[in-house]
Amino acid sequence: MEKRTVLFVDDDEKILKSLKRTLADEPYKTLFAESGKEALKILQKKQVHVIVTDMRMPEMDGLELLKILKNKHPHVIRLVLSAYSDKDTLLAAINHGEIFRYITKPWKLNEELRTIVRQAIEFYDLHSERESLMSFIEKMAEKTNPEKIDFHFAIKMLISARNKHLYEWGNKCRSVRTTYNETAG
User: Fold this and answer.
1) pLDDT digits over 129-163, tens only?
2) Is there a single domain that holds both residue 25 and residue 66?
3) What H or E segment, with its residue span, contains residue 20?
4) Pick from 113, 140, 165: which residue ends a domain?
């Protein structure tokens, strides 16, 4: 599987440096932008799977960035990492930016942040897998007489592949929980 890419957007250089240290050993690529405009430039050049943005930034705030992402890059999973927790802003981020999670700054535990980002990547992978399966079924239906398609066999194969993926994901989660319990305990 291709290595996923996560883009972090925050106008506070200290936060970006802290994120770089916290996420240095993670199994995904990290990119960093100091503004919404810089983030959009990166998205034009690189494939990004997950974006984590602050809400309060000069020039372009996080909500504006989230709205643009929803329209121009709907496949990107969107998270908010912000100290600004006004109820109206939070609801706008959820309703207009369709965010996956809202994380408050300062985050409590580094492992919690890592886990949330990993969950966002997994959500991206699940969504991509769903799209691939739907495309496969549509192509299969187009090429074959619908009465001749062995959907039962095709679905069994897809379920088998999905179960393997879920088993591997469960092992990853157990590993994260063990690490989290060791650090928290």
Assistant:
1) 877 777 777 776 676 665 655 666 667 767 777 66
2) yes
3) helix 13-22
4) 113
